Amino acid sequence: MATASSTKGGDLLDRLRAAGVVRLGIAGEIPFGFIDKNGELTGEAPELAKVIFKRLGVDRVQPVPTEFGSLIPGLNSQQFDVVAAGMYVNPERCEQVIFSDPDYQMLDSFIVRKGNPKGLRSYEDIVEKKAKFATGTGYAEIQYAVEAGYKESEILIVPDQVAGLNAVEAGRVDVFAGTALTVREVVKKSAKAEATEPFKPIVGGKPHVDGGAFAFRPTETGLRDAFNVELHKLKKSGELFRILKPFGFTKAEMTDLTAKELCGG
After folding, report:
1. CATH number of 12-105+210-259, picked from 3.40.640.10, 3.40.50.720, 3.40.630.10, 3.40.190.10
2. Which of 21, 126, 151, 255 is most buried as measured by Cβ atoms within 10 A of its Cβ?
3. What span, in angstroms and rounded, lies between the C-alpha atoms of 13 and 52?
4. Which residue ranges does the record assign to the Solute-binding protein family 3/N-terminal domain (predicted)?
5. pLDDT at residue 5, as a whole number
6. Cα(21)–Cα(216) distance, rounded to whole angstroms?
7. Running along the chain, 265 residues long, what does each successive block of 10 average in pLDDT?
């Protein structure tokens, strides 16, 4: 039985089809995966999951909200079937789960005061100009700044991009670093701050691009492969961009990166 079905996604996909529902681990993070004010599940990853799983013969998705740090442990302890949270693919996570190919790529961007008075366009600029720097709790941007030579103990850590915008507007810091997408969205209503042009941080001496994807248990290669087949069809047809666009994604966030490249393989 398993061998006959493994080409189409294997045992788990068969079970999901029989149940008619797939459980998605989400972390309540806008725009990646969240419950909206009407109590409905939405976000770029759940909306994409709805389309792909329907094509795989699973009609319903059910959200299982958790903390971001609990997504991988929750997946591996079978609390849900797949992580649908726009999770960045990196070598450390690749040792614990397997990823689909990324559905988006992400560059970094800064929130600075209007006119960018200090001319901050990279982490190296922040170090060189001794700018006061903030970023969010647990953000990858902490490491990017440290890599450029910024002292970790001097970074102001704030809860999220809204708090980052407030810190820049109030003059407590010169710059807040986040993903191009979250920064672009949060400054829209600001009269005092703007977003810099997106850029690639330097990691290990090379320009680095992050990519977000769906995570599966390491044993579920069949389901991951079946998911990838449908994902690539959506990329090719342009449907993927149409699904992600309402969440603030632009053509600059579309990508041909593979999970293998981002896992360091």
Report:
1. 3.40.190.10
2. 126
3. 12
4. 21-251
5. 39
6. 16
7. 45 96 94 94 97 98 94 97 96 97 97 98 98 93 96 96 97 97 93 97 93 97 97 98 96 95 88
Burial 223-243 (b: 16+ CB within 10 A, else e): bbbbbbebbeebbeeeebbeb
Give the tokens for residue 144.
């990017």
Fold match, 12-105+210-259 / 108-207:
yes
Class of domain 108-207: alpha beta
- Tokens encoding 105: 């790529």
pLDDT of residue 29: 87
Query: What's the confidence (pLDDT) of residue 3?
Result: 40
pLDDT at 4: 40
